[in-house]
Known about the structure:
By secondary structure, this protein is of the alpha+beta class. Helices cover 16% and strands 46% of the residues. The strands form three sheets. It has a seven-stranded antiparallel sheet with strand order 3-2-6-9-10-5-4, with helices on both faces. The mean pLDDT is 97.
Amino acid sequence: xxxxxxxxxxxxxxxxxxxxxxxxxxxxxxxxxxxxxxxxxxxxxxxxxxxxxxxxxxxxxxxxxxxxxxxxxxxxxxxxxxxxxxxxxxxxxxxxxxxxxxxxxxxxxxxxxxxxxxxxxxxxxxxxxxxxxxxxxxxxxxxxxxxxxxxxxxxxxxxx
Length: 160
């Protein structure tokens, strides 16, 4: 059996893009920092997002049934930290410049790319929920340097 500590240490070596995932709807505006995001298929365009069920925002995402994945650029390390902090949802969204696309979920204007989505399926696995999302709009910026998380630290990738 794999020990939790061994699993976490090994997973820290899996490089992941840093994202701020947001929602808006009857349950309010909420957001969190996530690295567990990946594509599912291009037909139909879909992605998945994993979220800890103990997160304060968890039930709000389920109720709103929409989300936007904002892929952070190298200049967004502070926004990543804000969205993983104990700040209130209102305080978090005071950082950065926000707009909306089709769903109404907050879109970070200068994110590398933002995927605006409807949550189509929800699957619970252990401590986490997996949201399978249908992408309804994409906004891409002219930024060319991404923010990744590797070995418990932020790193910048891409052309200078």
